[in-house]
């Protein structure tokens, strides 16, 4: 069976991927979005910072977005992409885990990042509910309440200083990594208490957070814990196509989101893991315009050849 052909294949159907699909669908391009339905913000019940949609459930937003893009003829494939091969000259072929294959003239990767969580009991259960990573997304909802910061991770001290803006009742949990004298002085100056000891568990009781257990058996009371996790970019397809990656695994891109692979762009959290929903959607909108411009250039060159 001949694979279905599209102008653009978008791998990843979160806010970034669907935003790019909307712009390209409105540009009258044939577009397919391939997405397995596991967005990064799935544990969160609400999203924030999105003008006119503040507090909106992210799952509901994706449902509405899929309906919108489908109205412009965008094809939605609810599968995981497994392989990508080809090049801009001959076209790209994308295969899914269900052995569906499509071809496309251009590719946008909106596959995001995977947050790496510590292997501590209760962490995954609390993630997105009581264990939070973005104060701009969740800080206002837990303002002026007793909070804690998961220490011992890169940038945790500066992160604690940021979280301090939302509460005066903040505890920095060292998690076995003692702050330096200067760091301790800085935390003390901002009224942030410090608790030594390794974190052994996050305790939840149904819809209530019951605190953080330390290795000496003590429990630190808090209504929520903030943690800045490390993130692994899902750039496997960039690597398999021979694209350049940074030491951290992110794709090398120009300001328009183009990778070093002709015909392949990246967007969303795959470019900036800190990007909120509105930021990722906005970047993808600009990427889609650049992709459409590239296709216009190809179409023009093809038309000129017919005159010769």
TrEMBL record:
The keyword Flavoprotein belongs to this UniProt entry's keyword annotation: yes
FAD/NAD(P)-binding domain sequence ranges: 6-281
Catalytic activity: [thioredoxin]-dithiol + NADP(+) = [thioredoxin]-disulfide + NADPH + H(+)
Keywords for the protein's UniProt record, in alphabetical order: Flavoprotein, Oxidoreductase
Listed Pfam families: Pyr_redox_2 (PF07992)
Database matches in SUPFAM superfamilies: FAD/NAD(P)-binding domain (SSF51905)
GO molecular function terms attached to this record: thioredoxin-disulfide reductase (NADPH) activity
Record's keyword annotation contains Oxidoreductase: yes
Domain of life: Bacteria
PANTHER family on file: THIOREDOXIN REDUCTASE 1-RELATED-RELATED
Protein name per the record: Thioredoxin reductase
Biological source species: Microbacterium mangrovi
